[in-house]
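W.,

You were right to be curious about this one. When I first looked at the sequence I had no strong expectations either way, so I just let the prediction run and decided to look at it fresh. Below is the sequence, 481 residues in total, followed by the output.
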Amino acid sequence: MSLFAVKTIDLLMKESERENQLRRSLGPFSLIALGVGAVIGAGIFTLTGVAAATAAGPAIVISFVFAAIGCVFAGLCYSEFSTMIPIAGSAYTYAYATMGELIAWMIGWDLVLEYCVGAATVSIGWSQTLIALLHNFGIDFPAKFIASPFQPITLTDGTVVHGIINVPAVLVVVIVSVILILGIRESAGVNTLIVFLKVSVVVVFIALGWKFINPANHTPFIPPNTGQFGEFGWSGIVSGAGVIFFAYIGFDAVSTAAQEAKRPQRDMPVGIIGSLLVCTVLFVLYSYVLTGVVNYKELNVAAPLSIALTRIPIPWLSTAMNLAVLAGLTSVMLVMLLGQSRVFYTMSRDGLLPPLFSSVHPKFRTPWRCNLVLMLFVGLFAAFAPISVVGKMTSIGTLFAFVIVCGGILIMRRTQPFVPRPFKTPLVPLVPVLGILTNLFLMSGLGWSNWARLVVWLLIGLAIYFGYSRKHSVVQRVTGR
């Protein structure tokens, strides 16, 4: 039995045409909204201030551009694959067609770090934002029900306590999972509404905050380096790009919806690249206003936006922005859990996961049992996991997926040069190589402890593959190897 048995594109397409039970209902606007919904969330609202205060200063604006360039390299590669192989599964499916079953399994397993662990991370942030918002209205929850036992929290009186279970985080995971079970059209509609709300409020913050910018806060725009790599100067800009990379995580989730797009060959590149462009423009303007309203030295806090809002004398803006943060985090969870369920759906159809992950509801036509399993898994992480660990696990898992996809383009151009490509990645091999190097560079900045967690996670995946997946693989049975 070959560990690197490849699933040909012809076989992939025949299977999708014969067996697709998912509803094709997503147009280009819905796909862009899915991408924007996944991207604008925890990163922009929490990490921007830390990166500005500790690494880049006001030049965090340039850091966002650098991080976007790395994402664009990967996005162009995702766009080519998504039009060649318009099937649910994202990087997993692309690796299966280029590098073989073992690598495909490893990348599919790795995507759990991006989607499931990422959704759990965001749910914890959602819970903290809700608690802060309700506190402003005089409503407080018991401390033991708003945090995990491993995540200390600071109460309004300055007391540091440990909780028992994070109930609001679990609740939002359940709500989002139910929405996904009800159907892709309904999920996309909810997501589009939320995206419109949070983008509108971010635009309002940019427009209203612009006139409160103090030019002195942008001087110098690139603070001089302290003598340590990554502490301001140009090295600080690069370091800041690695920190705020988390803000861009999620645009690739658009590719997991390829099997539910109306015209994937035309609309997938629009959704992927379009969502990246929209988010980059918003991130650059947002960070420029944030560091203009508040001096970057004051932004090393978990909620930098709240500081900026105190400098803008508009009473209703604070409540509106907190609601936007909640909306933003909700849509991120929705798209991440959508992406994970579609990856597991495809892996199950290939025999690498049990059949329950590809069981489609007869009425809603969604992989509902898969959504229930994910709800339980993510809910446990949301209830008990410390946010300080899961956030970086999400980043390194995503960057690893990007490296595999960029490498896959190089392989496909050499091994299958005549396969129809409705969208072609430009400047091959330059763009894929730059994508690989850029994302490996960003991975190197995440520290050895996160590399160790990635290795342990992949070893667990290998144990599952050799214990179950290899024996049940459809490709292995068909090829007789």
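Here's what jumped out at me. The chain has one domain: 9-18+27-479. And, maybe more interesting for your project: The mean pLDDT is 81.

Coffee later to discuss?

I.
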